[in-house]
Amino acid sequence: MVLKPGQIIGDYEVIDRLESSNEGVTYKVRNVLVDRFEVLRILPKTLQDDPEKVIRFLREAKVHARLSHPNIVSFYHATQLDGQLIMTTELVEGTTLAERRESGALPLAEALNYVSQVLSALAHAHAAGFVHRNVTPANIILTPEGKARLTGFGLAKAKADPQMTQPGTVMGSLNYISPEQVKGLTELDGRTDIYSLGVVLYEAVTGRRPFHRKSQFEIMLAHVNELPTAPTIANPEVPAELSEIVLTAMAKDPANRYQTAEEFQRRLDGLRRAPQSAGEVQQRPAPIPEPKVHVMRAMRTAPLVGRDFVGRSLALPRKSWPVWAAGFVTFLAVALAYIALSGRI
Q: From CA 151, how far away is CA 156, in angstroms rounded?
């Protein structure tokens, strides 16, 4: 069913069509009972023939409904209308962090302010037993008032939820997935979100991604094996302490990262309060660009296509055979995960 502006569906008047994807169609609507603008997402009947899409849609609604926090886009309602599953959420006016970053690195105070707010949201979600699994700049909405709002709970799950992803399958947005997501591990905890947000912070303060590679497979391998250029080298305006914080969040081994969102936030907030001789970390956040409407997007998976790694040889450095063997095992694990995901597209 395609809805048109002015059409009434249940208690909602359609205002505009916002987005369409293989996960549903999203509209700006007015709730006529309470006279409030909201975001309505429909899972069309054609997609409801796919049991996995139905389960993910319902799981997203259940997870989002249990989260109530100032830095999380509010969930309103989920039901069936005319045989179609729908959910409604808060309509947030603003720009995404991805759009905000298009002009380059953010002022340090602004970047730390937003990331600290997202950490508050993640701390709340983790305390409720949920892992987001898709923390990206596109899922962080910045309001004109300087608020950061986390959205995009399509991949979020609780530890007790049934496992839907096959072992060895990569789920998430390619440039922000953690090493354990690349490896296709099924038992993930909040530290995977800490890694992803570390990548987001790296981009925000340097204006560049930590791993820019020619192929998607090479990006996956870099998340697992390569250390990023230190932020203070990528952008000399980044203080050494902030550079260390970012690299700790992005540690390959979850045991070497901040163990909780609160710990990560304490380090950032301590830096924000400390006097700075350079970088002006305590400066007032810059004004937000002209607002746009952004909505919760379900299940952002990386479009892993192409086979540009096939047939290439890797120049391995000369190392002792146990080190070389360990590296080869890691390479093989990533390759198998990539092939498994490619086969699902």
A: 10
Using pLDDT thresholds of 50, 70 and 90, give the confidence band for residue 166: low
What pTM was estimated for this model as a whole?
Answer: 0.80
Neighbouring residues of 285: CB distance < 8 A, sequence distance ≥ 6: 107, 109, 110, 113, 114, 146
Structure token pair of residue 57: 């849609």
Residue-range domains of the chain with CATH = 8-90 (3.30.200.20), 93-294 (1.10.510.10)
Structural element, H or E, at residue 88: strand 84-90
Query: Angle at which helices 321-342 and 216-225 pack, to 10 degrees?
Result: 140
Nearest to 280 by CA among 56, 141, 113, 164: 113
Work out the burial of residue 321: count CB atoms within 10 Å of its CB; fewer than 13 is exposed, 13-18 middle, 19 or more buried: exposed
Bridge pairing between strands 140-142 and 148-150: antiparallel
Q: How much is the pLDDT for 170?
A: 60
Question: Where does 32-91 have alpha helices with state H?
Answer: 51-65
Q: What angle do CA 33, 36, 42 make, to 5 degrees?
A: 85
